[in-house]
Hints:
15 strands; 13 helices; 3-stranded antiparallel β-sheet; D-Maltodextrin-Binding Protein, domain 2
Amino acid sequence: xxxxxxxxxxxxxxxxxxxxxxxxxxxxxxxxxxxxxxxxxxxxxxxxxxxxxxxxxxxxxxxxxxxxxxxxxxxxxxxxxxxxxxxxxxxxxxxxxxxxxxxxxxxxxxxxxxxxxxxxxxxxxxxxxxxxxxxxxxxxxxxxxxxxxxxxxxxxxxxxxxxxxxxxxxxxxxxxxxxxxxxxxxxxxxxxxxxxxxxxxxxxxxxxxxxxxxxxxxxxxxxxxxxxxxxxxxxxxxxxxxxxxxxxxxxxxxxxxxxxxxxxxxxxxxxxxxxxxxxxxxxxxxxxxxxxxxxxxxxxxxxxxxxxxxxxxxxxxxxxxxx
Length: 323
């Protein structure tokens, strides 16, 4: 029975003696494997045990210390468009999932006195929705439109109606398939999703990777529900790659950088994507927003990203569109 082997986020929180939000954060970071059943997050018992053993083996690392580090180092904010919390003028929410935003947040706090940066790890679609509703100050997006072959601009136009906006380029990343080591099923590209012997693991609704998959499925005429594993969701690239590495799926979609962090997977490059920052034009002359633009365009910031690897920084800091 599923109930005998899987746990809710609250049950995991009780076992590890941490908060439920920290459980979600661990899943988003790929430290703890999780998946969705309907609208609920579930975690397998064996994955909790693996996580506990992994942290025990880290010298000087304990779960309660890790919880403290997550909450203070990233200032994580669990985003919801239904959230009624009112943030003070000194609290600044940056929405998106890439690690480069954690680096950007650190630079902003160091360079802007009095600004307390909060991080939301919502996907691209919900990030733009949060910007529209005034729940976040900065959104990031890597949403591909299959009809125009454009990134982000078509979505910003539709999702921020009547709101003059700026799109500033952060980086390009390579999206592709994670497959098991050696690619035993000979997977080459999108057309392989038509095969009846293929089992996939998906990203959550609203993420840029999920939109990319759904757009390509639409273009090749394959309804998602016909693909085995389509409704199984993970909330990070690392969790998707790990699922494939364990042999629980044949294909997962994600960026190249995450494939390099997981043993047991190969990466099939499919598409170069544009990862970009979106802000309201009315904010561009305000202190924290000007600071963000200056940071993104600085050589120091670009050098740090270059050292991490996995990013094409050719256009970093370029104003892509005023809408």
